[in-house]
Amino acid sequence: MTQERRLTAEDWAEAALEALGEGGLSAIAVEPLAARLGVTKGSFYWHFANREALVAAALALWEQRSTEAKIASLNAEPDPVARIRLLFSQAIELAGRDSAEINLRAASDNPLVQPLLRRVIQRRLWYTIDLFEQIGFSREEAIRRGAMAFTAYGGQSEITARFPGIMPIDEGGGIGAYVDSVLEVLLSGRPG
Amino acid sequence: MTQERRLTAEDWAEAALEALGEGGLSAIAVEPLAARLGVTKGSFYWHFANREALVAAALALWEQRSTEAKIASLNAEPDPVARIRLLFSQAIELAGRDSAEINLRAASDNPLVQPLLRRVIQRRLWYTIDLFEQIGFSREEAIRRGAMAFTAYGGQSEITARFPGIMPIDEGGGIGAYVDSVLEVLLSGRPG
DNA sequence: TCATTACCCTACGCTAGCGTATGGTGTCTC
DNA sequence: GAGACACCATACGCTAGCGTAGGGTAATGA
Q1: For chain B: N or C, fewer Cβ within 10 A?
Q2: How is A130-166 classified by DSSP, letter by letter?
Q3: What is the CA radius of gyration of chain A?
Q4: pLDDT at A1
Q5: In which band, very low, low, confident or very high, does the pLDDT at B1 lie, cut at 50, 70 and 90?
Q6: Percentage above 90 pLDDT, chain A
């Protein structure tokens, strides 16, 4: 964290991403980050033109890593049904793993964040829809169920992250059982 | 809006709530609001101790009105299934009706907003769960389905509000058809 | 070894917003 | 009609954060 050697633009972007996870978008601030890196903002303005450029760098870093991570963990699972289950499980425990995403959602009005989230949502939504189509639902039905699944685990992860303990999913079997019951409902009337 | 007469604390709270709906929590700022009300902040600090008090007043105003409105519109419908349908329909078109709520969710880390939203979520969640119990599901199953319904329409309203046009629910029948299909899934295997 | 380059510091100006002190004015009351 | 009170203006100090100017230093390559 606090380095002895001199810094690069990547060091700054890394620190910015970390700050985003801890304090939200507004925590990506030049002077506080400089202090944290044991340096003055004179350093920053050598590597970046302005704060916006730093925010953009941190967002790019996040997008790359988050998509890589999700794709990697999901591609390991060949069965579509198991993939959906994985999607859900991951989303529910997303709070601890990726607090940057939670904080990004809260800043979705920001002109840099808005298009980024739009891309990410689009990808995930249609990925989910595709899964339901692979399972055997018609395209129209897959769109409906996929959209429902996506909003459900989006809302779920948001709420559990921001209001821990408020969802009564710990009763009777824990998270796994809840995920199973959700899937049972989402897959009801499954053809094939 | 811009008044000729002198102001009361309620006028300030009202303007603050309006600003919250338009620009988020940070838009509840003393000097901009004063300018908007055609007055200086000397007026404000006569009515309130500080900014936090104004935020609290605006939040109280919102909580009171939003719960009143929702309860009124839902109590008019006696059938539980129709009520759930109403809940969903309302949530989806929530963006235009209550942008203050959307902006509040984005500020849920704020120490004044956090407990407020926690209360509201708690109320709505268990209200939804009760509906599923009234329909005939067991308590355990009602908790699962209610939680799922709640997160689904929470996520739905958030996404449609922040990223209009991104959800493919307008295809083939519009919102009403989508709500119906969601309900069909959520009520699958319904006893009684 | 010496100049160049990469990186950083110090010091400054600027803005938005919070909060305070104090004085002014219209309206109500006796 | 004279005070009292409610409401507001003016003017100030303060903080956090952005951005700039210009000088300094350590390492590196010729």
Answers
A1: C
A2: HHHHHHT--HHHHHHHHHHHHHHHHHHHHHHHHSTT-
A3: 20
A4: 40
A5: very low
A6: 81
Q: Does B122 touch chain A (CB under 8 A)?
A: yes
CA angle B26, B31, B37 (to 5 degrees): 105
Note the strand C nucleotides within 7 A of protein beta carbons: 7-11, 16-23
pLDDT in tens, A147-173: 999 999 999 999 999 999 999 976 667
User: Least CB-CB distance to B171: which of A143, A181, A185?
Assistant: A143
Nearest CA to B67 out of B101, B93, B92, B99 is that of B101
Least confident of A107-121, B77-91, B164-178: B164-178
Q: Which residues of chain A neighbour B183 with C-beta distances below 8 Å? A: none
Which pLDDT score is estimated for A192? 73
- For A53-100, the pLDDT digits (tens) are 999 999 999 999 998 888 888 889 999 999 999 988 988 887 778 999
CB neighbour class for A51 (10 Å; exposed up to 12, middle 13-18, buried from 19): middle
Provide the residue type at B129 as one letter. Answer: I
User: What pLDDT is stored for residue A171 in this prediction?
Assistant: 65
Both tokens of residue A90? 């991951």
- Per-residue pLDDT of B100-142, as tens digits, reads 999 999 999 999 999 999 999 999 999 999 999 999 999 999 9
Interface membership of B143 toward A (CB under 8 Å): yes
Q: At what angle do helices B99-106 and B139-162 cross, to 10 degrees?
A: 100
Q: How far apart are CA A156 and CA A106, in angstroms?
A: 15
- Check residues 10 to 39 of chain A and report those whose beta carbon is under 7 Å from nucleic acid strand D: 28-32
User: Tokens in use for B39?
Assistant: 């007055």
In this structure, what DSSP letter does residue A5 have? Answer: S
Return d(Cα A191, Cα A79) in angstroms, integer: 16
Mean predicted confidence (pLDDT) in A118-127: 96
Q: Do A159 and B189 touch (CB under 8 A)?
A: no
Tell me how far apart the alpha carbons of residues B65 and A119 are, in angstroms, rounded to a whole number.
35
Question: Alpha-carbon distance B178 to B168, whole Å?
Answer: 10
C-alpha A21 chain-centroid distance: 11
